[in-house]
Amino acid sequence: MSSLRIRLRIDFGDANAVGPGKIALLERMRDSGSLSQAARELKMSYRRAWELLESLNTSFRDPVIVTSVGGKGGGGTTITELGTALVAAYRSFEQETTRRAADYFGPMTSRVARKAGSGAKALRRPVTKSARPRAAPKKRGRGSKRL
Fold first, then answer.
1. What angle do CA 12, 17, 80 make, to 5 degrees?
2. Residue-range domains of the chain with CATH
3. How far, in Å, are 1, 2, 39, 95, 106 from residue 109 at the CA level?
């Protein structure tokens, strides 16, 4: 039986969105206290992680992560109450949506084809392109010139 998985993106207007990548980044930053460590764990460049963090922090009136510059005590990141609430709301909604998807799509999971490269024979034939008959060339009338 195949398992269902939901990937959500929540849009807060046209320019602000939160999805699985930003939430995972917030969780890793919360756990490690470091943007660079979180980026490494997610196999993401530091620059990309910083861009996602900036996007999150500019999407809301209050920051979701507060950063401190390195130095003698070292830098770090701290997730704010808003950041904690955002992660909790996203994960709760994701779980609820996954449960509801199981209600709607669960009966179909037994009909999902196995992956062709998994060593097992595929359950259905692959789609093949059929040959289309070519259109007959248009006949030109007497006296028409080809340009």
1. 90
2. 10-101 (1.10.10.10)
3. 6, 5, 34, 18, 5
- % of the chain surpassing 90 pLDDT: 50
Instruction: Identify the CA nearest to 46 among candidates 37, 55, 54.
Output: 37
Is 8 within 8 Å of 19 (Cβ atoms)? yes
DSSP single-letter state for residue 115: P
Q: Which residues, other chains included, contact 67 with Cβ-Cβ below 8 Å and sequence gap of 6+?
A: 35, 53, 75, 76, 77, 78
Residue 120: count other Cβ atoms within 10 Å of its Cβ.
10
CA distance 125 to 134: 26
Q: Kindly state the DSSP code that residue 67 receives in the 8-state scheme.
A: E
Supply 11's token pair: 């849009």
Percent of the chain with pLDDT over 70: 73
Of the candidates 62, 65, 58, the one whose C-alpha atom is nearest the C-alpha of residue 15 is 58
List, for residues 28-57, the tens digit of each pLDDT value: 999 998 899 999 999 999 999 999 999 999
Question: Is 0.90 topped by the overall pTM?
Answer: no
